[in-house]
Structures are given as C-alpha cells and as structure tokens.
Amino acid sequence: MSGSKKSNRRRKAPVIADRGGVQSVRIASTILKALAAGGGALPLKDLASATGLARAKVHRYLTSLRNAGLVSQNADTSHYQIGPAAVEIGLIGLRRISPVAEVCDALPALRDLINQTVTVAVWGDGGPVVVAMQESDHWVTMNIRVGSRLPIATTAIGRIFLAHLPAAVTRPLVTAERRDAQQRKLALPSADEIDGLMSEIRSRRLSRAPSALLPGVDAIAAPVFDYRDNLVAVVCVVARSDAKITGWDGSAVRALTDMTAQLSAKLGFVDQRSRQSKQTDGEAKSKTPAGAIVPVDGHREKTG
User: Fold this and answer.
1) Which residues of 228-261 are buried (b: 16+ CB within 10 A; e: fewer)?
2) What is the pTM of this model?
3) What is the number of other CB atoms lying within 10 angstroms of the CB of residue 6?
4) Do 23 and 127 have their domain in common?
5) Which domain holds residue 59?
6) What is the dihedral angle through the alpha carbons of 93, 166, 127, 115, rounded to the nearest 10 degrees?
7) What are φ and ψ of residue 71, in 5° steps?
8) Residue 270: exposed, middle, or buried by beta-carbon count in 10 A (0-12, 13-18, 19+)?
9) Segment 99-109, tens digit of pLDDT
10) CB-CB contact of 218 with 247 (8 Å)
11) How many CB atoms are located within 10 Å of the residue 104 CB?
12) In this structure, what are the phi and psi dihedrals at residue 3, rounded to the nearest 5 degrees?
C-alpha cells in the first residue's frame, strides 16, 4: 500500500531536454521570437497569446530575460520589447553575413528544385548586373552571362530595381532606354504603364516579363531585402516560353518567392505584411478559452 502511494506521489519535474537541447532555452527563444515578430512593445497577454503559453509562465521567463538584458520593459505601459543585449547579438550576427554571398549560395538549390536556369543580379554603377548564374538541364539560348548589364524598363530583374529604388537613381536610365528605343523604333511601356507595373510589382514582390533581349524566353524575378529594408539583390528564373513559368500560382513562382522570403528573413528583413497577418492570428488566439490545450512548437501547453 505504502509502495503504491509512493509511486503515485507527484515528483518534481526535471529540466526536460528537447531535441538535444534544454527545453527552457527553447521556450525563451519562442518568447523572444514572438517579441521580434510583434515589431514593437507588447503586453503580457499578447505574448501569451502569440506563444500559446500561460501568462504566469511567460512572466517568469520575461523576468529572467529582462535581468539578462534580452528583454526590456516600458516603465509607463509595462509592455515588453526586445532588449539591448538581444539587439547587440542580432547586429553582430548580421554584420557577419555577406548578403550577396548568401543569395548566390542559395542559387543551386533553387535551380535543382525547379530545374530551370536561375540568376542573381545586383545594382551596379550603370544599372542591374548579373553576378551569378546556375543553368538547368533545359536548353535555353541566351547571350546573358555573369557580368552582363540589363535594361531596367523591359526586363523582369530591371523592373524589380525600378520598383524599389529611388526615382532619382532610376530615372536617368529609363530616359536613356526610352531614347534608345525611339531611335531603334522599338516599343517601350509608357510612363503610365510603367507606373501600373510598379504598383503590381511592389504589391506582389514579383516581376514577370517576356524577355525583351531574348524572344521566346520568359523571366520572373523577386527581390531580397536586408534588415534596413534595402534591396540587396534580385533572383530571377529564366525559361523558354513554353515552360509557362510566369503564372502567379505556378510551382516556379512559389519556389522563387519562398527562397527570397527565407533569404530576406535571414538578412534581418521583417515583412510588415507577415507581421500584420501574425497580429490577426494573435487576435484569434486570444479568443481561446482558458484551460484549453494549445500546441506550441510540437508540445502541448495549457492556457491560463
């Protein structure tokens, strides 16, 4: 009998290792990521909703994180935000990253995933310059190579830069290209048409165009941003027109946008649209009844 009572006695839970690590570190990381995704100072209840953890548990972790300088608290509102130590750690990590190298290193994986030719371009003194290329098994005839400069008004890559760089930087190039097109009796989009294209490109973060340089070859491009919201590179998929890569819902487009979004996040870019979506999700979570079991990163936590 006594043995039975002893076996049923609740024991103090030990520190649980999670996938080779310590669970408390994982939980602290979850809270810090929720703060970062929130974009500003957040109240305790919002953090609890975003993480799916009980408020009391979140508060205990916030106290320790605040003592370590990883979290700070507004004295007037009591809201929490990323602390100076976390900011310093993040900046050190970002300074060690070479944005263009990160993008170029990711290119082979994209090529292998969609089996189409892919390129990376950056902004040079005279416009977009191709700095990397990975060719696929599909035969595509083109005279564009690493080092090639591209038009800004008629190419998928160029239009990404046109949509995101200051007009003072891009206007002289557009003017020169329009003058050249008139001399060669070639059609170029009107100013109004370009304005409409730029709005769509900014909204979708995608640019598609039948290649003005290579008839029968289509291209679709997407931007990569850094933690300062600067456009650091453009990734482009190039294929024969019969491959039909430019559909907004096509597999090539999904792979391209997934890759560029991941690269931007790695470089510290915070997508405001994703943040708004997460805030909406957080509002929905806040309606979860107290005591409900909510999954958190593969684990089940009880709400307060």
Assistant:
1) eeebbbbbbbbbbeebebbeeebebbebbbebbb
2) 0.63
3) 8
4) no
5) 2-95+272-302
6) 60
7) -135, 145
8) middle
9) 888 999 999 99
10) no
11) 18
12) -65, -40
